[in-house]
Structure formats: C-alpha cells, structure tokens
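G., before I forget:
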Amino acid sequence: MEAIKEASQIPGVTTPPSLFAANLDVEFVITFRYANAGADAQTGDSTTPEEQLEKLLHTLDLAGLRTVVRDGGNGILMVFTRIRSENKLFGEVYRSRVRDWLHGIRPAAPETETQRSLEKEPLTDGERLRLVYSLITLPNSEGGAGITPKQGEWSLVESIFALHDRDFNKKWLKDWSTKWMIGPADLKIMRDRFGEKIAFYFAFIQWYFVSLAVPAAIGLFAYLFLPAYSMVFAICNCLWSVIFVEYWKRQEIDLAVQWGVRHCSTVQRKRAEFQFETEATDPVTGEKLRYFPAYKRLTRQLIQVPFALFAATCLAIIIAGVFSIEIFLVEVYNGPLKVILKFLPSVLLSISIPIVSTVLTDFATRLTQFENYENQDSYEAALTQKIFVLNFITGYFPLFLTAFVYVPFGEVLVPYLDILNVTVQHFGHDEKYTTSDTGFQIDPSRLKAQMIYLVVTAQVVDFVVETIVPQVKRMVFRKAKEFGNRRKGLNTEAVMDPPEEKEFLDRVRYEADLEVYDVTVDLREMCMQFGYLTLFSPIWPITALSFMVNNLVEIRGDAAKICMEMQRPIPNRSDSIGPWLHNLSFLTWLGSISSAALVYIFSSAEEGAPPKDLTLYGLLFSVMLSEHVYFGARFFVSYALSKVQSVGLETERKEKFMVRKRYIEESFGMENELIQQEDEKTGGEYTGVGVVPDKGGRPLKGGDLSEKFWRSQGGWRDGVNTGVQIMDIVRGKSKKTQ
Amino acid sequence: MEAIKEASQIPGVTTPPSLFAANLDVEFVITFRYANAGADAQTGDSTTPEEQLEKLLHTLDLAGLRTVVRDGGNGILMVFTRIRSENKLFGEVYRSRVRDWLHGIRPAAPETETQRSLEKEPLTDGERLRLVYSLITLPNSEGGAGITPKQGEWSLVESIFALHDRDFNKKWLKDWSTKWMIGPADLKIMRDRFGEKIAFYFAFIQWYFVSLAVPAAIGLFAYLFLPAYSMVFAICNCLWSVIFVEYWKRQEIDLAVQWGVRHCSTVQRKRAEFQFETEATDPVTGEKLRYFPAYKRLTRQLIQVPFALFAATCLAIIIAGVFSIEIFLVEVYNGPLKVILKFLPSVLLSISIPIVSTVLTDFATRLTQFENYENQDSYEAALTQKIFVLNFITGYFPLFLTAFVYVPFGEVLVPYLDILNVTVQHFGHDEKYTTSDTGFQIDPSRLKAQMIYLVVTAQVVDFVVETIVPQVKRMVFRKAKEFGNRRKGLNTEAVMDPPEEKEFLDRVRYEADLEVYDVTVDLREMCMQFGYLTLFSPIWPITALSFMVNNLVEIRGDAAKICMEMQRPIPNRSDSIGPWLHNLSFLTWLGSISSAALVYIFSSAEEGAPPKDLTLYGLLFSVMLSEHVYFGARFFVSYALSKVQSVGLETERKEKFMVRKRYIEESFGMENELIQQEDEKTGGEYTGVGVVPDKGGRPLKGGDLSEKFWRSQGGWRDGVNTGVQIMDIVRGKSKKTQ
C-alpha cells in the first residue's frame, strides 16, 4: 500500500514515476495493419500501406511525438510513441489547464509560470496519458494530430493503446484483495491512474455496496419475521432506493470537485464520424461551424420509438413464447419425453435471446450513428439509452410476465395453451398426454423461483462468463488470424526482434490483442442489478443481501479484469456516471409502481396459493398512491439533501471566493485611485460649509434650481441642523426657519 | 416612441439622461419619521431622533452621498440624496461589473479603463439606481452604508424610494396604450428603467397574452362545434400549457442573456433580519461566516406541513360551509325571506375569506421569518410558496368542490343538509318550508355558472379593486395620520418650503405616501389565472378568450399602476420569474389530472343532467393515463426544445468562445516560446538520423535498454524505412532486417 501511495505521489514530471520505465518510456502503441490493405476495398482509400505509414509517422512527428516501429506479428506493425520533449509536455499541460479554467472546470487560473504550476499540481499518470492521447487523436483544428483509428485516411490504423504498468497492477490487486473497504484514498489512486470515468464507476459500485447494507438488513428482518410481500418492507425498500440515488448525486458532485473535473462534461469532445450538412464560418468568433439541422436529428430520433416498440415486441414474443411452451410442458403436457423436453425452453431462450439481442444492439448502434451526433458524449448517451431499453426487456420482462400476467390471469389463459396440445394431437398423439384443463392450477412459487434464479444463478453465471469468455475469444481470434495470414502467404514469423527487447515486445503483442475496456458495460450491469432490487425485491426480500455478497467479489473482479484481460484504459475524464444516473432514477420510479402492484396482488394471498379478491380499482389506487408518495418522497429527500452542506460545493465556493476576493481587491485599488484623483481636484474630502459642492464633482443637469437646492445645505452637519430645526418647529419648541 | 428610445439610448453617464434633471438630480429620498420616536418603544433603541438623524447623515456622507434635508410633513423629514461625484459612481459601476464577471454573470471582464468601459456599455437609469440603492442599503462588510429601514439602529428610517420620471412615464403610457404588441424593444426600455425583475413580469405577461391566442382559438372552436367537456379540447389545452411553460423557460434564458443577468440569482443578497447561531471566521477565505444549522431550519420548515393542512382545513371548512348553506338556501330551503337569504352566502364568503386569508398570510409571513433564511431570495421563495398554497385553496377549492363533490355525490350528500332544516324546525318553523328530500336534483349548470363567475366577473372586480382601493386607502391613511399628529400636538403646517421648491416638494410628499410596488403580487395573479385555464377550462372552453381580453387591459393597467399609484420601484435584477415558474409547472401537472377527471365525469352526461355510469376504476384509469401522457409529453417537449438552438445560449456561447480564444492564444504564445527555447538547445526541429535524440529532450527513465530502444530509429523517416522493410519481409518480398 505504502509503495502505491508513494508512486502516485511522486511530485510530478521532473522525476516521472517509474511506471513508464518498465515500459521503456513508451506512452502509446499504435497498431498499423498492413496485411489486409489490398483486400480492404471498403475504405475507398487508394493509398498503399507504405504511403499511409509514412503519413502516420510524419504526422506524429509534426505533433511533437517520437516514434519507433517494430513488428507486431500477424500482419501488423507497432508504432511506439512518446512525447518528444518535456517542454512540449509542459506546454500541453499548461494549455489544458488554462482551457479547464476557461470552461469553469478549475476555479482559478493556473500559475502563469509553467514550472511553478507543475510543482503546485503535479502531473498524474492519468493526466499525462490523457493529454498525449488527445494530442494524437484530437482534430487538427484543436491542436491534435487528428488520428482516428479505422476512419477515412487512417483506415489502416487499428488501435491506439497504452501499456499496462505491471508492478502497479500487481500491488493494486493484492491491496484490494486483502481489504474490505475501498476508501477515498484508493479511489484517488484509481483516478490518478485510470482517469475519472473509471474511478467514478468504482466510486459508484463501492457506494452501492456499502448502501446495500441497509436493504440487506431490512430484507433479512423481513425474510425472518414479516409476512411475504410485506408492505412495510416494500416501503422501506423504495425509500432506500430514493435516498440512495439522491445521495449519490451529491457524492458525484463532491467527488467531481475533489478530482477537479466538475463541469468537465460541458467540454464536448467532437465525434470524428459526425456528418455535417452545411459549414459556415461564424462571423463573430471566426470559428468553423458545422451544422446538422436539429429538426432533422429530432426526426431521426423519432425512429427510436418504432424501434423500441419493435425490439420490445420481438423480445417479448420470444420470451412469452418460450414461457408458454414451458408452462405447457411443465404444467399441461404429460406425454413422452417430458423429462427431456422440460429443458427445451431454457435452451431455446439461451440461444435465441443473445442472437436477437446482438442483432438489435447492432441495429441500435447503426440507428445512433444515423442520428449523427456532433459530440462523443451525446452519442454515447443516446446509445446507452437504447441499450438500456433492450436490457430492460430481456432482464425484467420475464418477471413482469410471471407476476402480472401468469399469476393473476394464469387460470384464464393457460387453458388456451391447449392450442399446442391440439397441434400435438394433430400429429397423432392422443389426449391422455395432457392433464385435462379442468385440473390446471397456477404455480405461485414460480415467481420466487424465477427471481432467485435471476438474482443468484444468473449473476454467478454472468461473472464466470465475463471472466472466461474474453480469454477463449482471444485465443480463438488469434488462431484464426494466424491461420488467415498463413493462407494469404504472409511470412509472419520472419521478422526477428532484437533479443534484448524480445520479452518486452512479446508483452506488447499480448496486450495489443486484449479487448478495449468499456466502463459502460460494467455500469449497465450494476444498473440492471439495482433494477431487480427496486422492482422486484418484495418477491424475495434477501435479494439485497445476495447482491452485497456478489458485489464484494464484483469490485475486485472488475479491478482484475481491467488489469489482466483488458488493454490499459485511456484515462477519460467525466464528472458523473452519466446517462446511467437517469436510468437509476427511472428505476426507482418504476419500483414505486411495481412494488405497490406486487404487494397489492400477492400480499393478500396465502403463501403458495394464487391471490383472491383483487379489484382493478384497488390495484390502480395502490399504484397511484405509491407513485405519488414516491414523488413526494423524492422531492423531500432531494430538498433536504440540498440544504445539508456539501463538502464539494463548499470547497468550490471557497476557491471561487478566493479568486473573487483577489480580483475585487485589485479593482478596489483602481477605484481608490480614481477617488484620490478626484480628491486632488476638489481638495480633500468634502465636508465644509459653503464650499461650492460641484466643482469637479458630479455635474448638475437640473439647472439653477437644482444647483440652489443642493447648495442650500453645505455639508452633512448642515443637514442635521436643518433637520433638528424642523423637528423643533413641528413639535412647537421654536419658530420656523428657512 | 422616438423620444423614449432616444432618452434610453443616450450614451451613458458623461451626459446623464434628462430624467434626473426634472427631479433636481435627486436619486433617492429617505423618509425619517421623528414624530413617533418617543412612543415607539418596541425598537428598544434609546437614541433620540436628533442622534439618529445625525448618524444617518454622517453615514450617508461617509458612503459618498450628498444629502439635503427637507420637511416631509406629518412628522417626517425627507433626506434627499445623490452620489457625491462621478468618479465615485464610476468606481461603483466598475466594481459591480467586475463582480458580475467573477460570478459568471458577464462572460467577459469589463475594460480595465473605466471611461472606456462606460462608453462601451453605457449606464442605464436602472443600473444607476440599483447601484446607488445598494450603496445605501448593503451591509458595511459589502461596501454599503448598511441602512435598513425600520431595522435596529435605523428604527426611524421609514422608507427609501426613488422619484418618478414623469415625462418618461407619460410618454410610455401613451405609447403602450396606442399599440397592440409589446415588443422586445419596449421590454428593453422597461428593463433600463425599472430593472430586470419587473421587466421579466412584463415579458411574461406579454408572452402569456400572445400564447393565449392558441387555446382561445381552440376553445372557440370547441365552444362552437365540439360537445361539452370534449376530450380533444382537454388534450389540446393540456398540451398547450406544457409547451407554454417549457417555451417560457427558454425565453427566460434568452432574455436573461440579452439583458446580461443570466446566473445573477447566484449572487445572494443577504437578509438583514437573519439570526445566526454561531459565527466563525473561515480559515481559508478569511470570510466571516454566520451559521444557522440546516437541520434546524429543516425542522422549522416542517411546521409548514401542519400549517398548510390547518390553513387548508380552515379555508375548506369555510368554503364548504358557505357552499352548503348556499345549496340549502337555493335548492332545499323554501321558506320566508328566501329572496334575501339567497345573498347571505356571498356576503359571508366575501367577508370571511379576506379576513381569514389575511390572518393566514400574516402567519405564513411569521413562519417564513421564523425559518430564518440567510438570503433574500430564499426568503421570498419560501414566502411565495406559502402564499401560493393559500391562494390555491381560496381560488380553486370552490370549483373542485362543485366538480368533484357536489355534482357526483350531490344526490347522496345534499339530503343531509336537512340537518339545517331540522335546526330551522327546532326554532318552530314547519316542514312545508323545505322541498322534501324526495324531489332534490343537483343543478349541473352550477359548475359552469361558477366558472364564468370566477373567470369573468371576479377578474373584472379584482381589476377595479386593484385600481381604486389603493387610492382610497392612501387618502384614509393620510387623514388618519394628520389627525394623529394633530392629537399629539405636532405643528405640521409650521415649516414653510422655499417657494421655488414648493411644487417639487409637494410632489415628493405625494410619492412618499404611495405604496411600494411588489411585482410578485401581479405575478401571482397571472399564475392563478393560468391555473383556472389548465385546471378547469374544459368546463367553459372560451376561458382563454376571456383571459386574452382581460390581459390586454391588464398589461397596460399594470404599467399605469406602476407609474401612478406606486412609488418608483427599485430596479432589482432577476434572471427568471423565480418560484412562480415551479408553480406554473405544478399547475400544468395538476391540470392533466383535473382535466382528465372533468372529462371522464362530465363528458358522458347529457348537457344539464348529472352524469351516469361512472366507475371508480374508470376515473382512476383516466387520471393515471392522462398524468403519464403528461409526463411523457413534458419530457418530449423539453427535450425537443433543448435541441432547437436558443438565441440566448448561442450568444452566451459565442461570447465565452471569444474570451477563451483570446486566452488560449495568449497561452499558445507562451508555449511556443518554450518550444523555441528547447529548439535553440537541440538545434532546430529534430528529424535527422543519428543525432542523439534526448539531449535536452525528455529524459529517459527506463535505463540503457530504453535509450537503445529509442535510438534504434533516428527520426520518423527511419521508422518508415523499418516499417516498409518489415512489410516486405512478411509479404516475402525480401529477406529479414535488423
């Protein structure tokens, strides 16, 4: 631990931390795929690999980066880069900090002298990598080299990635695996290495993990002592979810201030893929503006609605279909092969859902690209929203189906499943194979069983899949590539590495094959998990407890995944968990509805029996009541939290105050000077009687009358005398004056 | 019109506009009441009037103001003030602009040279008065004289007010009374004179007036061609209200940017009445901090809940009671004096509601004071919220009662009113005086009649009352004061004005007696009107049309009121209509519920007959559906509007960009200098082969291996060559290298 702290606190650049040393001072590796160049007709780029390589190295050189080229195997070249000189780096750091100040991300401008500025705020690994990365990828207009992998003129550039710091990773994983709580100091280290975006995910999951203690405790109590579908538990659970989300919003602000990234989402990263319709130069700013009409994008966004409906229908039909088959097989069918056929639905679902999901996700991505966003953030937010809708359906629809269709309406609907039976009969089977429709009874334990499956089994399976699949995938891909290259007659083994670099280059080649870490995938997972908790935990109150156990492992597993199975992430900045925050709020809202409905429908029933005596207005009324209580609670919680002092906002306020104070003092100085000038003209402070008041003072525009009026009382003492006289006269103590 | 434009566009301070001329260059008049000083024991201040007057004039003098004292009649002195010198004023202007810049209200810092800064942005009357006012009233710690009327050491200071500019007012009223539309130029003139807060009210009412054209047209169509309680009309009306509110939010931003007041609400005005519990000096900022614990305020705020319930119950009982009496008298009672007794309820209501309202408003004010807000804005917002609740009940409860209690349940409930009858019988009357309960039928036209009364008659009555009552009140108060003074033996007629000032001083005395204009009263009126429209307009679709006519007069009436019946308002800044915006949103939401319920209950009924076949789940379902459609629509409208370019935000963005550009150019300059220094050391751009790359460049920390690695390729051309060789080898074109 101490070692890690030390490494991350070494004061800045003049003695850069050792982590780059182990990587031969390499900052980024750019992989350049020359092998498929000829075959790759889709780019429409007629340059040869040699020309593009030359252009790449020249561009990097112009941007101030040094390069070394090595063989990457499998038909790629690896271009190792590092920034040419310290001064270049300092300049970038300074400019970036000034830009932050101008965008309101920093409260105070950086010290004008670079060296001092860096000593005061040393450069972290994260900041350095971020700056060099933006130097490579930003468009030329914003001072970067404009290299965008696989886009346009850079069709052969495959990826840009940083190298892992193995020593740090090892220490880090060991540290985290031996302690229970991830504290602010740990998050700070994460942030310094991997950037704020990833650090925010870990801060979130840690806060979520800690917060889960409350519903876990309540849930355990409810499980042991309260009746099933207890209203008390549902209310507590809802209330907790509201407080959790609202408090997280506060924490986000505090963290953002502490990490100096608040408002950084206002600085938009332009998307390279953005297609503009008209280009114009702004007459005021001289800035090149690329317009894409807002109404057009809005029209395109409207396609989301039919898409969401279509996707929902697709997935719902599949799920409901499989569900029907399952009910039929388990509860109606009684014919041959029942033992084997029982597994048919699970197999069907496991095959069909991932395929359909992949197709739909792909379509969602295309749709989002078609929506043509100007900025990376809006693009990501729009894609996230669509993915969330898909996940929402695949994740929650089965439970909704069981809870709100199968159980209440099962006795009415299931007999219709005999249509399957009729079909079966059609093929010559006879009626004895089905339980007759007179005897059918719904199975109320199905809901709980399904919930436990989704909450426990599915989580474990997911975790395993997440850990193993990428490795298998990587191996397969590698073999496939090697095979492909051999087939193309490429002599991939021919290039020899310099022997002393062999180990290093092998490591880099290994890392080049790793996948790119996408933090939104992990955030989505947590968000979905939170959804089970808010929407369905009355079904199985110890849901929260099981999630707590799961997340204890999950945090560490994710850390290990980043270190070992993924390329080192580019340290992006962020001041929030982004669009997921809205989704969390949305889930708390839906939770208020779903919990009320669950409690209303099921709490009246005996355990193990279908519910009785339900009325539609009773259901509507409980849902409405719950929803409005939820709105009230959310309003109250967010109001109350807004009144409690926030550490982050307080810090920000103070920093702003200091800036203000300094400036106001300066402007005060100026004003005093002005008054002094005036005093020199009028001869000191004006108090005496009879002195002509307006010489050098404010000119009177009201003419003679005005002059006479203002001269009638020479100074403030004169005024007091007049006033006292008037008072005396009115009170009858003396006779009139003036 | 031309004349007004000219007056407001005279470039600034060096030649101040003529309006102050007619007022003898007086900026503010401070009234000082010496007559009641002895009797006024509640202040606990033992200073004599003479001492306090001396202190007042001395303080003003120190703050840089000139003063002249004149008799105000009726036991008050009038202290005329103006700023001592132009330089003092310039200093204030400059400091205020710098402060604005630091708070993010201005995008760019003002020109450092004051004179140039003022030439570029001339001082408006509004800005001048605002600055001088803050010079008089701000606490000493913030650079003002700290004079707070009627508070603490200034117990005898009664009011601080500016003098009307009669010429401008005359031209302004004439101009507005002869044209239909109030345009942006007119609002700009308003803003320059009366400040942004009042200008925002006029901008709002004008936008509201124009927008009303839509529901007025739809309403007229519905009135003529659609059945009563048409769902189509209700939906259109709701949708319009959503768009209206969301679009206004946008307009607020545009106006705030245009007027240079955006974010000005973040600059908090401290409340003089704030009671702190602990005082500490901030270790970082050195600022004096006065704490009042947030949890304590939150606890105090919770008193609002019982208060609101109590107030609602009080008002509801009165209204429901009177309502019952009315129903009884009109529809059940048939005895003697019916003709006269029929008016009893109206009389009861007209007397009781204002009295109870006044008591409750007074209590709400005390409660808000007790909540002990630190800033003026939070205080006003909290008070506004309470007043809104009271107004909500008195304004809308009668209609809710008729629509949702009397009509649906009337036949069940009204017979119980016979309890009154029983009471009457008790006093010896006999049964023939009541229609027997068998024959009772509710009167469904009552709802529409009540709506028309509230929407037309009440608006007209309010307008007349608003115009006449203050004048009567003023006369009565003046007489009462004169009588009181005479009774105390004050010789108010004894002081003689200088003859040439007589006319002027009489005018000032007249204005001193006028009331202070409170823009929130007018905003409240509009907000309540908007409420009738969103909540109840299905009852009488041409409501919007009648409001349009009313508001055409209202705008001009309010302008006249400000000019003639009120003291000249202090030009306060504001970047919004403040808490009323939330209330408007709230009303649109409630409108979605109320409209759905109205349409569900009444649309099935024949005109003039009570509704039949209503079910509770039908009602709940329509309300829920409507509410959720409303949420969806609001989300969509606000999203769509956020994507349409806003003029204001665009302007702000451009201004910020210009500032950024200038600064970045400066920092670029610095960076280029650094690189030049470096280039001098390394001997120009590094491209050659064999030159030791790291002399003066970035030092390598990876040791020998690293150095060898980076030296292995001298410059970027070397890299290209290596790359091409590797490609050739792999493709089998040549033999291996390295």
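The first strand of chain A starts at residue 28 and ends at 33. The first helix of chain A runs from residue 2 to 9.

More on Monday.
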